[in-house]
Fold:
Amino acid sequence: MNSSKKITVTGTGSFLPRHVLTNHDLTRMMDTNDEWIRRTYGIAERRVVDDATNVSDLGCEAARRAMDAAGADPSDIDVLIHASLQADYTAPATACVLQSRLGIPSCVAFDMNVGGCSNTAFALTTAINFLANGDCRRALVVCTEIYSKFINWNYRDSSCFLGDGSGAVVLEVCEQAHEIQTDLHTLGGDYERVVWAGRGTVTAPEELRTPVIDGRAVWTFGTSAVPETVATVASKAQLDPSDVDFLIFHQANARMIERNMNTLGIPMSKTFINNSRYGNTGGASSLIALDEAIRASRIHPGDRVLLCSYGAGLGYGSVLFDYDAAHAKMDVLEGAL
Structure:
């Protein structure tokens, strides 16, 4: 099989828990109020799992929906990547659990974690590299987060903006597509800006067992790194960011998305925000937003879509891809071959 970077996203899926936790519900759990959360994060509610739900439960449903959308059978999947801060087990990888539950007979399956929210671009790029080297034709990427089981709901500043959910995409080699472009970075020297000791081996006080975030530093990072990586990945395709048909961002904060779109000089009509309903679902957030934008007909076959994720690490990156290139109108893909 010849190597190629002509790769397209052929299907997307997402899955959110049924239970809704509103800002008003949080006022009974911590010292906060609806107005402050809306003003600060743009969030009105989020979804949370019940005690019986595991990471693979959310991931499996999102993956099934993505495979259905792509028309992909289990035997079509050559590589399966699951990216998350959490896992069903320490071993085996949750990707192996998903492989079993999805009925995928044989594939490369593994977990990865760069830093939660930034996982999306890194997982997609890893899948793209498998496809580009010619060994595989189809990849399934699943990003899932279940925060509600692990955070301390007494700490307002590190819990009120989080939510649970999963998103998935199927990518495949497609000669009708433009070459896919990627851009990744980590700023390890700033790793302490976002720390979640969680179940790690570092001995930490109780306050580090829930996410500790330097909000001012993260805002500065998010409003500088995002425009940078968006411009970089667009330039690799000889495009200006404004030439891209649609942009999908990590749904950390509606205010940050608005700020970055303004910096880039791109109208808000070319992006999608859903964090008012789901909160920050980490690495899953941009894939959930991508799926909802497609199902709402905001993104169409042949559109050039730029997805950007960023978070702990500090890690950030972008992927520029064609959506469903094989089913695009020919004039949309003029010059792709």
Notes: The chain has one domain: 1-325. The CA atoms of residues 146 and 164 lie 5 Å apart. Residues 215-236 form the longest helix (22 residues).
